[in-house]
Amino acid sequence: MAVDVDLTVTAGNYRFDGASFAVDTNIWLIGDEHEVLIVDAGFDATSIEAAVDGRDVVGIVCTHAHNDHADAALTLADATGAPVLLHPDDAKLWARVNPGRLPDAELADRQVLTVAGTSVLVLHTPGHTAGSVCLYLPDEGVLFSGDTLLSGGPGMTGDVLSSRSTLLESIHRSLLVLPDETVVHPGHGYDTDLGTERSEPWATAVKGSP
């Protein structure tokens, strides 16, 4: 069954360890006219809820717990009644962004979620953060990559909770094994596909990873 993919872009300031800069974050809605799965919830719960447009929300997946992907998750959960899902390896980071309240459920590598009759495979891809995940829809040929992979290369690894070598290994192990024609919907910026990314110079380092 084909699903629709809708995009809402929210804007705010990414904050970590004293750094702060303005970013736009891609919020993805996967589903049909009846129900949706929300991928990320940064900055603006109101605009995300408006994009839901009255549909049932089966879950709010945070691809990782940086504030630009997770700081509106609890407000959105209260507004929609949907559970917030996060990989447990981002628990410490989550606590910085949303102190005093835990996510509703944990994500696990190779876990399968379902929305509108379509399977959504969770891929644990640490590196940008320890608990970063991507969501792969094999029947649709679509990957929601969070900040693991952006158009033009891997996501940022400039803080103490990130690791570029781990990120490259994750991309090699979990993403570059997927078909070239897989469309990538990232957490920031424009769409790409795995064939394009595989041909980029940065991918040489990935190919050389263990």
> How many helices does DSSP assign?
7
* Chain-averaged pLDDT: 94
Low-confidence sequence ranges? none
Give the class-level CATH name.
Alpha Beta
Report the CATH superfamily.
Answer: Ribonuclease Z/Hydroxyacylglutathione hydrolase-like
- What is the helical fraction, as a range of percent? 10-25%
The CATH architecture can be named as 4-Layer Sandwich
Strands side by side in the biggest sheet: 1-2-3-4-5-6
Helix and strand composition category = alpha/beta
What is the H/E string?
A: EEEHEHHEHEEEEEEEHEEHH
- Principal-axis shape equals globular
Q: Termini distance?
A: 37 Å
Count of DSSP E strands? 14
CATH third-level topology? Metallo-beta-lactamase, Chain A
Radius of gyration: 16 Å
- Main sheet properties: 6 strands, mixed
Tally of structural domains = 1
Relative strand content: 25-35%
Could you characterize the architecture of this molecule?
The chain is an alpha/beta fold and 210 residues long. The chain has a single domain (4-207), classed as Metallo-beta-lactamase, Chain A (4-Layer Sandwich). Helix content is 23%, strand content 35%. The strands form three sheets. The chain has a six-stranded mixed β-sheet with strand order 1-2-3-4-5-6. Strands 7-8-9-10-13-14 form a six-stranded mixed β-sheet. A two-stranded antiparallel sheet has the order 11-12. The model has no long low-confidence stretch (mean pLDDT 94).
How would you describe this structure in keywords?
14 strands; 210 residues; Metallo-beta-lactamase, Chain A; single chain; 6-stranded mixed beta sheet; alpha/beta
